[in-house]
Amino acid sequence: MPPAPPTPHAPPPPDAPESDVPSAAHPRSKARHDAQDAFFGYYPGPVAVVTARHGDAVNVMSAGWHAALSAAPPLYGVAIAPERHTHALVAAAGAFAVHFLPIERADAVQGAGVLSGADVPDKLAALNLAWREGDHGLPILEDAYLAYACTVRERHPAGDHDWFVGDVTGVYADADAYPDRLLDAAVASPAIYYGRSRYEGLGHGPVRTFDVDALRALGRGATDDEGGAA
Ligand SMILES: Cc1cc2nc3c(=O)[nH]c(=O)nc-3n(C[C@H](O)[C@H](O)[C@H](O)COP(=O)(O)O)c2cc1C
Question: Which of 73, 81, 88, 177 is the most exposed place for a label (fewest CB within 10 A)?
Answer without folding.
Answer: 73
